[in-house]
Every structure is written in C-alpha cells, then in structure tokens.
Design goal:
The chain is mainly alpha-helical. The chain is 64% helix and 2% strand.
Length: 166
C-alpha cells in the first residue's frame, strides 16, 4: 500500500523536485522498510517486524516512475558512507543489496534503450569505483546461501560496469 501511494503521488506530480524530491523520498522509504519489515527467512520471534518477501520494493517504486538512476545510486552511496541510524551496522548490508539491485536495473534499462551503458563512460567509471569500495567492505557477509548469491550478483554486475567503463 505504501509503495502504491508513493508511486501514485510521484506520477501525479511528475517527479517535480520541489514537491517530490526523489533522494529524500527514497531515504524515507528505505528507513520505513528497515524499521517495519524483515527480509530474511528467519523467524521473527519478537513479532515486531512484518515479513516482506519483495526486498527491492523501495527501489522498484522509483524505477517504475522512471526516476534517474543517478539519483537512486547517489542516494544509496551517501547513506552507505554516512553510516547513520538506521543504516549503520548490520543494516549496511541492505544498502549494498539495494545498490546492487539498482545497478542491475540500470544496466538492463540502458540495454533496452540502446544507448551507452549507464548513461555514459563517466557514470560507468564512477559506478566501478563505488562498487569496488562497497563490495570490498564485505557488508553482505557469507553466512547464508542468500548472502553468497548477493555477493555473486555484486561480482557479476561489477564486471559489466567495468566492461562499460573501458
């Protein structure tokens, strides 16, 4: 319901930056997700978080709205570097996963549009540097099969970004 309402408002105001600043609304949605949902398969014994199987919903809302990927990635990057509550500690892994998903979607969208991958060489070089730093921090971990899958997805998209940056 939250995703639908945000998407509806974004469409109605045509992503007007004065009314609907993508970077701020994205940060609010990510905070909402971390505060109220859990995405791992473990039992939530405290019954404080709702289970949500659609991990990427906060990012997908903006992709549906055709928000610029540059803004999505730069917002996630800023949150990752800032390490402020609630994005610090164990929740940094969520930022890395959202970042990997965003870059994957950006790659797919740029292939569909037929232009230069990631909108140009400068973006690809910046993404390559960002992914190098973020993925080498090992925030995702390797405890579960799902964590290993996310690490592999990160490695694969980094290869595609590196190729585009050449």
């Amino acid at each position: 319901m939250v995703a639908y309402q945000v998407e509806n408002i974004g469409r109605r105001v045509n992503l007007n930056e004065n009314v609907f600043p993508v970077n701020i609304v994205l940060q609010i949605l990510l905070q909402y997700d971390i505060t109220f949902y859990t995405h791992d398969g473990r039992n939530n014994t405290g019954n404080t978080l709702l289970r949500c199987d659609h991990f990427s919903w906060p990012i997908d809302v903006f992709i549906k709205l055709n928000a610029p990927f540059e803004i999505l990635v730069s917002t996630l990057e800023a949150l990752w570097y800032a390490q402020e509550h609630p994005f610090g500690g164990r929740n940094r892994r969520l930022l890395v996963k959202w970042l990997v998903h965003s870059v994957e979607q950006w790659h797919a969208a740029s292939k569909r549009q037929g232009g230069y991958p990631f909108g140009g060489n400068e973006n690809a070089v910046a993404l390559s540097d960002l992914l190098r730093v973020v993925l080498s921090a090992n925030d995702i971990g390797r405890e579960t099969t799902q964590d290993q899958d996310w690490n592999e997805r990160g490695r694969l998209i980094k290869e595609k970004v590196d190729e585009a940056a050449r």
